[in-house]
Amino acid sequence: MLEFREISAQGGSASGGKNDAEYNPLFIAGNVPFTQGPIYGQWQEMTGRKVRRFEIKQGEGILGFFQVIKYPMPFSQNILYIPHGPVLKAISCLSDEFLKTFHDKLLEIAKEENSVFVRFDAFPKNEENLSKFFKRVPSHAYRSSYFQPKFEWILSLEKPEEEILDEMHPKTRYNINLARKRGIKIEIISENFDKYFHDFYGLIEETAKRDNFNLHPKDYYRNIFKTLDSSNAFLAVAEYEGKTLLVNLVMLYGKTAYFIFGGSSDEFKNLMFSHLAQWEAIKESKTRGMAIYNFGGVGPSTSLRVNNNDQFEGISRFKKRFAGELLKYSDSYDIVLKHTWYYLYNLRKWLLNLK
Fold first, then answer.
1. Which residues have a Cβ under 8 Å from the Cβ of 133 and sit 6 or more positions away?
2. What is the pLDDT of residues 275-307, one digit of tens each?
């Protein structure tokens, strides 16, 4: 019999009963998405969002974990989202029996939170049975800073550095060497993170204006920096002639290093400091025993050619030229409780996509 047990952030049952359960998705897999890790939930809670965490059991065995985040909407409405989750022990867990029980549990949670809808994108990916129980999200409704990308670019670190370099696009290797020759210095920072916050936020603001994307509130990033230490993160900082040109944040979770945020200057772009910063971050991740370097979201194609229909074309091409492979997550699926609000929400997303 399947059991969904809610777990508090500190371990133990959310109802306050004595329980040695712990929210730890790494217990069942080493390649768990960072967005289902405890620290990601902590970031959301630090912004005032409600996070609920669950352990999925069958008998004495643990099948999976998930954390669901509550996002506010206008007019006192809200939506629930399980980013790249639930995390399951195996694809075989996604049986009709599991999905029916999971559906009923999510419906129960959504009713408790009085939500418009609840959304998830399962990991690992298996979409054969999901449409039987859930509503597939239309492509235009993915547009939101709340939701995770469907495609990410990952690089295996389980090979020698020389081999990783050899597999890169020749232009990327050239740009790495050019940055070195021109005097770009990359420093790896594993302590005193707050010292670099001012530069980081200034550069990420500059990057957002240049690339036309929205930022979270400043306090969101400030709170993130408060959670960083040498065990879970490092910064790659690019400097030239005493000026900070780039600050990249890399988080470590399980066996994966995640390039989470990065800000860079418009100055001295011809010195190719972004290429060298990524390469030094890759080397640092490998030194720390990581098996995968995750560059984050990209467009759906593995091609390096220009695609004018791909809004991520520039950054996608940059990431893919480091070699690696495309990681594809499940489509997103919804359970809808308030159909009028859901229609208005999707209509707004559709109109935004026309711009």
1. 99, 100, 102, 103
2. 999 999 999 999 999 999 999 999 887 766 545
d(CA 282, CA 156) in angstroms, rounded, equals: 10
Pairing of strands 233-240, 185-189: antiparallel
Burial (CB < 10 A; 0-12, 13-18, 19+), residue 209, is exposed
Domain 2-147+330-353 fold is: Aminopeptidase (3.40.630)
Say whether domain 151-328 belongs to CATH 3.40.50.12780: no
| Cα atoms found within 13 Å of the Cα of residue 275, Cβ hemisphere only | 27
* Residue (of 238, 233, 221, 240) closest to 259 by Cα position: 233
**220 Cβ partners below 8 Å, 6+ apart?**
43, 46, 47
150: Cα within 13 Å, side-chain hemisphere = 15
Q: Is 151-328 in the same CATH topology as 2-147+330-353?
A: yes
CA angle 166, 158, 303 (to 5 degrees): 50
242: left (phi over 0), alpha (psi -120 to 50) or beta: left
Q: In this predicted model, what pLDDT tens digit does every residue of 131-176 receive, in sequence order?
A: 889 999 987 777 666 788 889 999 999 999 999 999 999 999 999 9
Domain boundaries, the chain: 2-147+330-353, 151-328
